[in-house]
Amino acid sequence: MRKYSIFKKLIWVITVLWMCMIFYFSHQPGEVSRMESGKILHKMDLIQENDINTVDNYEVLSLQRVIRKWAHKIIYFTLGILFVLSIINTRFTNIVTYLISFIAATVYGATDELHQMFVPGRGPLLSDVFLDSVSALTGVVFIAVIIELLKKTKFDLKKFI
Questions:
Q1: Using 50, 70 and 90 to split pLDDT, how confident is the model at 92?
Q2: What angle do CA 67, 73, 74 make, to 5 degrees?
């Protein structure tokens, strides 16, 4: 096996830290998660400050849900990319790397949802596992396309992966 570059080690550290961040956010009680979504909506000027804590305004609750679903998309898209960059050029071919990356991100998303069974005001949602896996797959495909395009240029990709 090739000696890992500093970049490879750094990507593994970033991947693990990203997973820790996901765990941190999913460990927040439902009320805290809702309030954080509300704060984002307020900063976007979509709701008033006094609506951040509301639980009886359907429109605000719907917007908070949209924020949380977009967070899932962005977080797992990035996790898919990080897994590919962490695993590529270890012992596996590109297609195996992509498959392992997708599976690892999906399994992490599923275990994260199970973990939420033990968090007050939260619970596991199969729809979130599906959203996480589709987002991870999108990230894996995105970085795979970038890698394949870079291979066709004069860019020396082997210095980084």
A1: low
A2: 90
Residues in the chain: 161
User: What was the pLDDT predicted at 1?
Assistant: 44
Contact 108, 33 (CB under 8 A): no
Per-residue pLDDT tens for 137-157? 999 999 999 988 888 887 776
pTM: 0.88
Please name the helix (run of DSSP H) or strand (run of DSSP E) that holds residue 75, with its range, or none.
helix 58-87
∠ CA 108-109-113, rounded to 5°: 115
User: What's the number of CA atoms in the CB half-sphere (13 Å) around residue 77?
Assistant: 9
Kindly report the number of other CB atoms within 10 A of residue 11's CB atom.
Answer: 22
Q: Which residues contact 58 (CB under 8 A, 6 or more apart)?
A: none
